[in-house]
Specification:
The protein has 247 residues and is mainly alpha-helical. Helix content is 74%, strand content 2%. The chain has two domains: 172 residues, no CATH class; 66 residues, no CATH class. It comes from Halogeometricum rufum.
């Protein structure tokens, strides 16, 4: 009789509470993509290829404003730079995996999958197979729920009238993501500086018209936020900062 591996069961159990919060986020991503002018197929394709909530919303927002593709691409890359740090941190645990499994795990990497997996690996000494089973259970659950919710959002978005003003959905979701994330000095610095630069990029008058050319405000805000967060982290060497980071 087939039995589900213990670490698969553990991974699904650990990620279940997080999946509840993923549902509205995925729905909004799908609705916003359609509202920005993407076809249902393009919206679903974007979700499957990118698979990064914050980046997807930033991409959709920029596409809705006819930003240059280069700006859209660079903005998504800057927002996802943290994935490089996650990869470097978790890579030692995946060193013995075959190339195919490494490709799958890298594609499925998210904030939640990284955080849960690193915490689990520190609890017990797990074999390579157990580490892989746990990670894939967490990451695949997140991927599945995200894609299903995005599809439902796309289907919902095709039937929502313009008078509903869904353009507000994207900034509202970003605020919902931002507020809980501001838990220490570096994240607060990143939020304030990044948000300030992004807003300034939209209201500054250049050549007689408001807004930076090529919709560069969001990209510059993302870069400024990252730099501010790094700078605040490197300057925070006191006891208070150490306590903040630990939380």
């Amino acid at each position: 009789m087939f039995r589900i591996p213990a670490e698969v069961r553990r991974g699904v159990r650990d990620v279940s509470p997080i999946l509840v919060g993923i549902v509205p986020f995925g729905l909004v991503a799908g609705v916003a993509a359609v509202d920005a002018g993407l076809s249902p197929l393009q919206a679903v394709g974007l979700s499957m290829v990118v698979f990064a909530g914050a980046s997807q919303l930033a991409i959709v927002d920029l596409l809705s404003r006819n930003a240059e593709l280069a700006v859209v691409f660079l903005t998504a890359v800057v927002i996802n730079l943290r994935m490089m740090m996650y990869s470097a941190s978790i890579a030692p645990h995946f060193r013995t995996f075959r190339s195919g499994w490494k490709a799958v795990t890298s594609y499925l990497l998210t904030d939640q999958a990284y955080a849960l997996s690193i915490a689990r690996y520190g609890e017990d000494r797990l074999s390579a197979t157990e580490r892989r089973n746990y990670y894939l259970a967490v990451a695949a659950s997140l991927w599945s729920v995200w894609q299903v919710c995005t599809v439902f959002g796309v289907l919902l978005g095709t039937g929502v009238p313009d008078s509903w003003g869904l353009a507000f959905a994207v900034p509202l979701v970003f605020l919902a993501l931002l507020v809980p994330a501001v838990s220490n000095r570096p994240s607060a610095a990143a939020a304030v500086v990044g948000g300030g630069v992004a807003v300034a990029g939209e209201v500054v008058v250049v050549g007689g018209s408001p807004g930076l050319p090529f919709n560069l405000g969001l990209l510059l805000g993302a870069v400024a936020g990252v730099l501010a967060g790094v700078a605040a982290s490197s300057l925070g060497d006191g006891p208070a900062d150490a306590e903040e980071v630990s939380h």
